[in-house]
Amino acid sequence: MFNSASTAKAAMNGFLSSQNVAQTVFYEPLYSQVNLAGFADRTSGFLSTQEITFFAAGVGQTGQGWQQSYVSAAQPQPRPLTQAQTNLKDSGKIPAGQEFIADSLGVDLFTTAPIHITDWLTSETSLYQERLSTQWDCGASRYWPCAEYGTSSKSAAVSGGTQTYIFPTNGSTTARRLPADGSLFFPAKQQIIFKMRIHKDVYTNETNAVASPTNPISANCVVAVVMTGWRFNVVSA
């Protein structure tokens, strides 16, 4: 939001300058979602300690745990990621003709996952970034909260008879802002990889126990890495 007409006009002048050098600039999220259910044992729902990669697949590509079905023990069928799961156009790198500068970073826990999964994600996982030959250890996932998206409710829980209904709530915690000299820079065709370390085994169903017909694997154990920032596009003729 602009505080005055002069700052708004300065922004317009900046936009025109970018246009004159055949570039457009957009402020937007850059995100990649993983469905942990796709990494769990197909029969028991057991998810072992391992590392999960974000931004490994782009739109239209398969991977990151997204499958057609999680109910049957039959051979899983991967499905292509859509714009709902990621807006990266290439796998593991920024496409040619684009650059991205991120000024915030967050781990987004989807409220569609069982409650014990969201608790486990904040207590038993950590995040790091790989960039060419360097590695940035971001640390525990709980220190990169992003709870500004998703479904919310005025009530966290309500009881009806003997049943307690727990509504999904995200609160209002925004992604961690990065200082100007600590922003994340992703030039065209360069690597963009984040990995989540799982430090403790878990079951991907409602009761954190071996899956059964009455206690199936959850289809929505989703977690995302999301950044917001500026995407620079080279304008094609």
Residue windows where pLDDT falls under 50 for at least 5 positions: none
| Overall pLDDT level | 84
N-end to C-end Cα span: 32 Å
> Which structural class do you get from the secondary structure elements?
mainly beta
Helix content: 10-25%
Rg, nearest Å: 20 Å
Give the tally of structural domains.
Answer: 1
Number of strands: 15
Largest sheet: 5 strands, antiparallel
| Morphology | elongated
* Separate helix tally: 2
Elements, N to C (H/E): HEEEEEEHEEEEEEEEE
Structural commentary:
The chain is mainly beta and 237 residues long. The chain has one domain (31-234). The protein is 11% helix and 37% strand. It contains two helices and 15 strands. It has helices spanning 5-20, 115-124; strands spanning 23-35, 46-47, 51-54, 62-67, 78-80, 98-109, 125-131, 134-140, 157-160, 163-166, 176-177, 184-186, 193-198, 202-203, 222-234. The strands form five sheets. Strands 1, 6, 11, 12 and 15 form a five-stranded antiparallel β-sheet that branches. Strands 3-13-7-8 form a four-stranded antiparallel β-sheet. Strand 9 and strand 10 form a beta hairpin. The longest helix has 16 residues, at 5-20. It is elongated, with a radius of gyration of 20 Å.
